[in-house]
Amino acid sequence: MEGARAALGAEAPTVGAEAPTVGAEAGGRWAKPGGRCSPEAAGGGAPRSPSPFPFPFRPYPIQERFMAALYAALQAGQVGIFESPTGTGKSLSLICGALSWLRDFEEKKKQEEARLLALEDKEEKQPLASDEPGQPDSKGSSGEPDWITAFVQKKEEQDMVNKLKEEQIRRKKREERLEKIRHNVQLKYAAKRKRSEEDETKRLLQLSKEALSEGAGAEVLEQLDHNEEELILAEYESDEEKKVASGLEEDDDDDLEEEHVTKIYYCSRTHSQLSQFVHEVQKSPFGKDTRLVSLGSRQNLCVNEEVRRLGALQLINDRCTEMQKNKHEKKSGEETEGKKRRVSRATCPFYSYEQMQFLRDEVLVEVKDIEQLVALGRETKACPYYGSRYAIPAAQLVVLPYQMLLHEATRSAAGIKLKDQVVIIDEAHNLIDTITCIHSAEVSGSQLCCAHSQLQQYMERYRKRLKAKNLMYIKQILYLLERFVAMLGGNVNQNPSCQAVSQTGTVLKSINDFLFQSQIDNINLFKVQRYCERSLISRKLFGFVERYGNPATAVRTNKENQRVAGLQNFLLTLQQGSEKEARTLQSPPVEPENEQLQAASPLMQIEGFLSALTNANEDGRVILNRQGTVGQSSLKFLLLNPAVHFDKVVKECRAVIIAGGTMQPVADFREQLLSCAGVDPARVVEFSCGHVIPPENILPIILCSGPSNQQLEFTYQTRDLPQMMDETGRILCNLCNVVPGGVVCFFPSYDYEKQVHAHWEKTGLLTRLAAKKKIFQEPKKANQVEQVLAEYAKCIKCCSQSAAGQMTGALLLSVVGGKMSEGINFSDDLGRCVIMVGMPYPNIKSPELQEKMTWLDKTMPRAAGPAPSRVLIENLCMKAVNQSIGRAIRHQKDFASILLLDHRYTRPAIFNKLPQWIRERTQVKPAFGAAFAELRKVSTFSYAWLWKLPPCTHLYFLQTFGLAPQS
What we know:
The chain is α/β, with parallel strands linked by helices. About 50% of the residues lie in helices and about 10% in strands.
């Protein structure tokens, strides 16, 4: 009985021996797992993966090894770092390996439950030994009589059996309900018919209300006053625990009380990546039987057009939460037809419990991506955002974006429970940066002054109608804003664009020092933060500015006009000042934002900064960036310890898999994330596999010198020298003569790329390059990237199809860490050669980076070798390099060459941080001649299919691609 109880415990089953070693061909490395539970829990013995794994086609050998390693890691409850290059079918391997484990786990659990229940039935018929007559009371090792010990044990076992029976009943009901929906089409038609009847009823009611409202013009002023109610803060009780955050009605908890089944949470960076993953699940052998739910933000899932029109995510969140709050308080309101503003107590028509239950079941019956979920929500008149959350407890696979999993408050609000579940984080090469970014915040002086002015006038207008506690918190927020501006050297009562800063520069402070120096250490920021969240004050303030900050508003009294005139004038001068500042700044151009949101919602961003200040003192720093004026200056919270927000994930989960196409170097994950989160090193395992392409399809070369024997070393001191820029140009000219299709050249920064481009234009090298390749430059504006890529691809396609001319393709000058170094697919002719100019080390003079380096040196244990700060710099550089050069090979039949232009790549510490599949095939060429010869061989070999064509066409194709002299 006790062994059976262990099988159903919270901990993951573990192996009885060491995990299997991954073969050398796969490049896998395994650490000994740290045991977490008894072997009996796994059904006895070491983990056995299914052979073969269910797969839509015959998998590559490396996919089989990947799935076996993944299965073993999940079975042993480990934290795995998995690397599988792009083009090796990583997504399908994750799906089939993880869902195979989940299927086997559920089957073993059912068998164990059945065995346990059968055992319980037998024991019910047998009396306890202490109940037999003539047995004297004896005492066990605990000092308690045996009969007491036996009674306690029996009660625990009975409680567990009762729990198992309840789970069985719930599971059976759920399966019957879903099976009924899956096969009974009449239910769907009945639901649609009911919705049509409800829509018709609502339409008739609306028509009758319109008829009654005719001639009601005399009540316009009264209606305006009624509309204004929505701008006034409701009475606030600081200690109340409301269910508004979860958006659930009190009597709607039955289904959420349902225990979460064992599930896999899969998360990735972007909406498109998640949709692509769901499509892979649909095509897999598990596509028909897996209960999958896709989660997203309200911005992606909301089907209420009135709310969607707000645009900004924070505004959508606040408006949605406000509508749910109105529903809970049973105070409904209606909107006057044709009016811009909403009446105070409006509720969302899509927030129907019955319809969301129907949507939940539809989601669980068939795998759907975000787009299909939204379409279903519109069809069923149900909210996809909340409906998908209803489906979480019963789902086996939950697909969600990074931010929702890694941010604890968002995770909790979504109803995500990680206890004893599996988490797979895909595209995790930038996981540390993502956690840091999510939990950092920045506010400008203009935003602080604008928020203070808005809030001050809001308080003055509604002072007599606000409760005492609301006034108290508003005054605290005003004081905080005043002190923040003072820390930047300004005054909230003056225009920030006209206030010059006496001492410019960047200063970093600990959180405690910042709180003391700004004289706000006596304010409970946790309470202020909670007040902002629950009172929806930023939403109310936005509505206030939206109404009274716009000159084209309804007619007001003279007193009202005087009261809001200051706000209008201030916003106007602030906007003019911001535009003036923007013209003087020399920073890269950015996409224009919504001017109304810039002016009307700064408090939303300030709330994020207040929340960041509640971090532990040692985990972050406050950066005071004082520029020319107070408006240009800013306050920023920098998170130094991302592990503090990741430790709950790894501690609560049964297993965590961190996966990506390029995970090297992995030291950052082990040291900055897992070690600092308290993960036992024995629990961490690594797996790295090779590529599916033949060895001859890729040629990585480290080039140490150029055509004129100039040593290639692009340091900050030497890279600006004319001879270095000339040598780089000569290398590209030679390569463009022999490499067909597209060539992508990465520079360390936008400034250096611009400098080199101008130098080549001056010396004539650019003209020589343009004779063979049309030259494109990476744009700084994100909205121009697609256009440049389309023109680049079109040029390459035209050149490959052209029957005449010397042009053989295109040359794209890109930037490491820019728009094209990640996520862009340079497959086939789009990227036949990728060139990395120098080593893109970060700017070590950056105050933020210096603080991070200092923190690492103080926090990380110093082992033999370089200091942690030095390792950080190298890892940041090589992570950027690996992401950039990984753009070339995208599938099994692809081929490309990779050139690393800097002799420093040959250093062992640097060389070993290249991806294994590239490192194994890399050639070091001290002189350019040998490298050029190898490149000619690759170009010729890659077009060996030409020789199968008629002999008369050979010379033409070779001349077209620059492999033979023109006649």
